[in-house]
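re the bet — no i am not wrong, look at it urself. input seq straight from the record:
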Amino acid sequence: MLHPRRRRTFDRLRALDDVSFEVAEGEAFGIVGRNGSGKSTLLKCLAGIYRADAGEIWLRGRVAPFIELGVGFNPDLTARDNVLINGIMLGLTPAAARARYDAVIEFAELEDFVDLKLKNYSSGMQVRLAFAVMVQVEADLLLIDEVLAVGDAAFQQKCHETLTRMRSEGRTVLLITHDMDAIERFCDRAMLLDRGRLAAIGAPGDVADRYTRLNFADGMPPGVESGRAGDGSAAFVDAWFEDEAGERVGILEQGRPASFHAVVEVRKPLGDPVFTLRLDDGRGVGVFETSSAHLGQRTGSFTTGERLQVAVRFEALLAPGRYLATPSLSHSESAGTPIDVRRNYTSMVIQGAAMGSGLVGLPHDLELRRAGSEAPLAGAGE
């Protein structure tokens, strides 16, 4: 009214656009996607928190949304009062909420704090109490949005065990997570969302691969390097990974041949410099290291201006995940004085369906036989 001639523009963001899928009773269904792809919005629509402006949503059975644990808690009330109120909000009768109160407190391990007001609880204690209430609702359909990543390690394990038990009881589970290992190990099927649209739906391993490729479609993010040291007699000017076809890539297939490459520019005359390569996982734990000295290889002498090319070939047996490469060059004498050390100079992602868990996916087979018999059981080792 004050500025009638001022032009007003806006952009329309469709959080979800033409997303259609079905989940069978008793199925564990994973939902993955990058931040802002519409995963949480979808779950809130299913839970009735958001109202969809088009389309239809059909749910059968009692629904328990594990979206924002603790919503509805009153910080000025005790744990006892909050458990009763929250249980009723989630569909329990007052009598049922009172009957399950002891089980809630026992699961949350808060027996010594039942008369304490929630505002004096730590955030971890509140999460434990909220999850314990959700468990006692005995819902037919569980909507889980990344909430199992909170709490201490012991409580996270307890949550996962409870979730596995619920699934074995025939509950239907919709799980949002960025943990592809959890998707492949827990879910029957999975769906990938990208910018609000359905990008893929099918086997968990296939969807996990699509998710990884989508995240690193433009190569590895810049700014990987975290430090540099050395006397500057030579310098790494480039480093990268290649797949078995010799293509420069940021994603390697698990179990396939691969290689690391680097180029060193010599700035002062060098004699037998020692090359070392170290790979760390995302938590800074070293998973692989090799060097020309350990292999008994002499590198020779180099004059100013020459370039040294390095290649380390290996089988990509590491577990799926991201790994950081630290190449270094040091003098063979003078107690191995560093020439150039590029901490986390580059990185790559291993993708694939991990068999079991651990740091590496070792090729192996499994044989089972009845005690006293030489013949393996039918199907063993296949």
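see?? The chain has a mean pLDDT of 85. told u. also Residues 359 and 379 are 27 Å apart (CA to CA). so pay up
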